[in-house]
Every structure is written in C-alpha cells, then in structure tokens.
Amino acid sequence: MNAAFRRWLPCITLAAWSAILLISWATGHMRSLLTPDFRIGAVAAGIVMGLMALVFLLFPADAACCSAAECGHSFFKSSAGKVITFLILLLPITAAAMFNKDSYSANVIKNTIAVTDATQLGFKPRNTPIAPVDMPLPTKNDPNNAPATAQTTPAAQTTPPAPAQTAQASQQPPAPQDYLQRTPDGHIVAEVLDLLYAAQDNALRKDFEGKPVELIGQLMPDATNNPNGKRFKAVRMFMTCCAADARPVAVLAESGDKPSLPEMTWIKITGTATFPVENGKRIAILKADKVEKCNPPEETMLY
Amino acid sequence: MLADLPIWLPDFAHTFLSVLFEGIPFLLLGSLISGFVDVFISSERIARLLPKNETLSILICGWLGMIFPMCECGSVVVIRRFIKKGLPLSSAVTYMLSTPIVSPIVALSTFAAFKGQQAWEMTILRLCFGFGVAVIIGFIVQRIPASSILVAGTMGEATGRRRAGLSVATAPPSGSVDFSGMAQSASFGQKMLLATQSATADFLDVTFFLIIGTVIAAAFKTAINQSAILPFATNTPVAIVALMILRSALSICSTTDAFIIATFRTFPFAAKLAALVFGPLFDFKLFWLYSMLFKKRAVIALGIGLFIGIFLVCWRIAPFFMAQKPF
C-alpha cells in the first residue's frame, strides 16, 4: 500500500495534471483562461509534470525523502488522509475541466461592475495605441502622419500580436495600412476598448468620431444610462493575466429597434461612433444602423 | 447573494481553472528548485557560508531566500535541519520567515500577478517588508533563550504528533532513513531521482492547499455579488483585516498567492500588501507546521505580533497608495 501511495498516486496525479494542461492548450481552451504570456508557462508545466510522472513510472520511489525522519510532506505521511488528499488533487480540476464553458455567463457580468469609462482601467492595455495628445493617429487616408511612438491598434488586428511582434512594432514606425482595419464596405473594425479609449483621448477620438464602425460584443441590457430605453451594451471581458481577473468592459449602443436577442448573445453592430458628453463626462455611444447575431470571435477575451 | 448552482458552476469552473493554470507553473518551479536545493546543497554548506557574528548572520539570512529559495512549507523542514546542525535559532527563524517572501520566484509571480495594478510597487514593497519583518523577529528571538521557544526534543529525538489532517510526525517511522546522509552519498543519477521525488512531494503537498484556496477564491469571484463586499473594500482598516484573515484561511503557497489576491481588485493596495506579507508568515497550515518546532505559546505570540504589526504598518502607508495611477 505504501508503494502505491509513494509511487503510483503521485505518478497518476502528475500524469493527469499534465494531460489536462496539454489537452487544454491543444484544443484551444487555454485561450479563454490565460493571456499568451502565461500560456507558455502552463504548457511548460504540463510537459515537466509529464516528465516527472515518467520518473515515478520508471523508477521505484523506495528512497524518497518521505522515508526519512525529517520529512514534512503531509501528502505522503498522513495515513488516514492519503486517499482524500489524492481525490482533492484530482477531482476538482477534472470536474472543472468538464464544466468549463470557456466564457463567463451574464451572472458574472451582472455581479461585476462593468467598465464603461477607460479611466477605470487605471492603465493602458498592451494593445492600446499611445498617441501624443492632439496628434491624430494615422489612418489609411492620412499616410504621412505616423507618430514615432505609435503601436498597432487593437482595431488593426483580429488577433493580438505576440510580445515579440509588439516589441518590434514599437521600434519601427508602422506602415499606414497597419492602422484601422476596415471591412469591404468601409466600416472601421473596432474593439470595445478602442471606443472607450477614444472617449478619453482627443487624438484617438478623431479617428473614430462620426465614422462608420463595426464592433463585436455580447449583448447586455443597460440599466444605468438609458434615458429613452433604446440603449444596450456591447460587452467584452478584459483580462490582465487570467480569466479570474477579467472584468467586463462595455460600450453603449443605441438603436431604434432594441435587439430582441437573449442576453450574452454575440452580436455584430454596424453604425456610427459618437462621443457625446453626458453628466459632465464624455462617453462612447455607437449609433447602430444594424445589429445582427454573429459567431464569437476567435479570441473571446480582450487583453 | 448566491446564484443558482447550475448557473454559476461553469463560471466557477472557468475561474478555478484559470487561477490554477496561472499559478501551477510558479508552484512547480518553486518545488523543483526546493527539491534540488534539498538534495544538492546540504544545510551544513549553507551554515558554513554564514558569518560567526549573529547580528550579521540574521541580516544575511533575511536575504538568503534570493539564493536558496524555499516555500514556507519547505522552509520549516529546512530550518529544523539547520537548528540540528547548530545554526543559531535567530538566524534560522529569520531564514524561515523571509524565504517564503524574499525569493526570486515570489518576486516574479507577484510582478506577473499585479501587472497593471502597481506591480513594481507591490513587488518591491512585499520583498522589503517581508525582509524587515523577518529580521525584526530574528532580533527578538536573539534575545530570548531557545529553550523557552523550542519544543522539547527538537534538538534531539522527536515526539511525533498529528493535527488537523496534517501529519507532522517528527518521530522517525520504523525503517526510516537518514535522507540528508543518503543524498550526500548518492550518485548524480540517484540525486536527480531524489530531487525529483522531493520536488514532487513538495508540489503535491502545497497544491493540495492551493486547490482549497482556489476553490474559495473562485467561489468569491463568481457566486458573490461584488457590490456586497464593497463595504469591506472601501473601508481601509476593515479591508486590511479582511484580506489578511482571508489569505491566512486560504493557506496558499507564497509562490502563487499573488495571483489569488490580485483578483480582489476592489480592495485597496495596502490590504493586498498586508495579505501578501502576513499570509506567507502565518497561515492556517503554518500554525500546525510551526508547532512542530516551537511551543504553542510562542507560535500564538508570533501570530498575534505579526498580525498587529503588519496591520499597523499597512494602515499607515495606505494613504500613499489609495489612487491607481492614471494612464
């Protein structure tokens, strides 16, 4: 029995954890859980744990420190709790992997105060453009106006750049066509964060204000800033490190016909970006011409 | 306040997995380093490196975790060995208290977890504060006779006990071996095997507590309306006390606790700092582990002293960190 606890249970536990980590990465589930920086560590941990499981599989653990008097490892020492310990190490993670739906429900968004003002984020996310005040970001129509410190905008890409790409981008002045990706019918492809920052940043606002915009988010009702009852929110979850620190960020949208879709439905809004001042604060409102159901984006989380 | 189970279960699973996936690489790295230090570097060698001057030794032991990092569970085992080898109790206690915080792995994980939440300030303050507290406790211990702190038999044969599901038996089990002696006389291949086994034991041992802590943190994140805890978060002294108690109750490893504490975004910076300094020094599991070495009275006094001291300092510095930096 002791051999089982010293050798086989650690082996099985390590192998199971390794499998869950690596399968989660291979199937893409990890994308909704961690930012790219942390995915590397999780995959490496999965590989290392697999190798450690192999060590236990191939070599008997008859000389482990847990045979020694000074050992303090409770996992191996506790006679009564060994099976319970083993179950706690395995069952919750296995069950969580089964129940995980790769996204949060409306319940979490309701329980968390959604960020509709970029200043509440307290910092600039990695993909947010840094533009000098009063200097507009270059667009396709304005190729000679490239600020030296500008980075790629979130709107300019469907997937976030790798860290190396971001570093490279910050060293070289990007080509004008890198900015403000547009749909074939001329709409600027924007993210929720683009419009939130545009509301606070004079330079960025000039690139969006009054222009046709296409934006994808999850439909949520707006109960706090809805004087005529025609407003709703396009919500995305924004994470800094992992899904546990994710916060909902939302842009207000306004349309004549309120969309009759269930909460949290992924919607594509096409319309015009406006930035009115309400209650002494400038906010972003997307005047929607069309709201339609769409598939979730490849990266459901913003970071 | 609690949502229906079927609704929040997927959310709970999502949060639970994300915290685990984020923290596990750091915990594994810490365990591997701990396992290899355990086998390849003897406690005698570390003791030989320390100066004869006890005060200087305390100061050096306060930073020793940067070279020989060890999680709080491992450090208790290590200093027990140190004390047996004749290292002054004050230096051993300083190392025991500082190494869970003053370590490159903890610095790295704290910085990563608090990215976007004054990460530099949190990392530097956590390490410096941890060092300061450990050194102060070391100087206090220097002035107290070891016999009034240590459990009888710590220096010699042990007593063996078992508390709260944690077997902290100090008595040699039948057929037990001298691990230190075995590690020193082993071949390189055997040492690698021993190090892997020791690291695995560390990893699984601490992961057990990490899972329990993550369950509580995930439940907190998904099942509780954040507005319900705002009164705790907005009142600074209450927030400090609440997070210190919560961190101790979670009993999570210092290499990963930053990832959980960082999720309490509504709480002030000072409360998070207090939790991240107090937790690795004194939590639920450490109470039982410390009791292996120290008299119960000394352990309780240590806990109360640390709690009050860290609370007061963090409350005092709280106004300097009230506002998040604007972008």
Overall tally of structural domains of chain A: 2
- Assembly type of the shown chains? heterodimer
Looking at the structure, what is the overall shape of chain B?
Answer: globular
Would you give the CATH topology of the largest domain in chain A?
Answer: OB fold (Dihydrolipoamide Acetyltransferase, E2P)
Number of helices of chain A: 8
Largest sheet of chain B: 2 strands, antiparallel
Q: What does the average pLDDT of chain A come to?
A: 76
| Strands side by side in the biggest sheet of chain A | 2-3-4-8-5
Number of helical stretches of at least 4 residues of chain B: 15
List the strand order in the largest sheet of chain B: 1-2
Number of strands of chain A: 9
Give a structural overview.
The complex is a heterodimer of chains A (303) and B (327). The longest helix of chain A has 25 residues, at 2-26. Chain A has 2 domains: 2-99, no CATH class; 106-302, Nucleic acid-binding proteins (OB fold (Dihydrolipoamide Acetyltransferase, E2P), Beta Barrel). In chain A, helix 1 runs antiparallel to helix 2. In chain A, strand 3 and strand 4 form a beta hairpin. In chain A, the strands form 2 sheets. Chain A has a 5-stranded mixed β-barrel. In chain A, strands 6-7 form a two-stranded antiparallel sheet. Helix content of chain A is 33%, strand content 17%. Mean pLDDT of chain A is 76; it is low at 128-170 and 173-177. Chain A is α/β, with parallel strands linked by helices. Chain A has helices at residues 2-26, 36-58, 74-77, 82-99, 106-111, 163-171, 192-200, 202-208; strands at 188-190, 212-221, 231-238, 247-254, 266-274, 277-278, 281-282, 285-293, 301-302. Mean pLDDT of chain B is 79; it is low at 156-176. In chain B, strand 1 and strand 2 form a beta hairpin. Chain B has helices at 5-40, 43-49, 54-63, 72-84, 89-98, 104-113, 119-142, 179-185, 188-223, 226-234, 236-250, 257-261, 269-281, 284-293, 296-317; strands at 162-163, 166-167. Chain B has 15 helices and 2 strands. The longest helix of chain B has 36 residues, at 5-40. Chain B has one domain. Chain B has a two-stranded antiparallel ribbon. By secondary structure, chain B is mostly helical. Chains A and B meet through helix 1, helix 2, helix 3, helix 4 and helix 5 of A and helix 1, helix 4, strand 2, helix 8 and helix 9 of B.
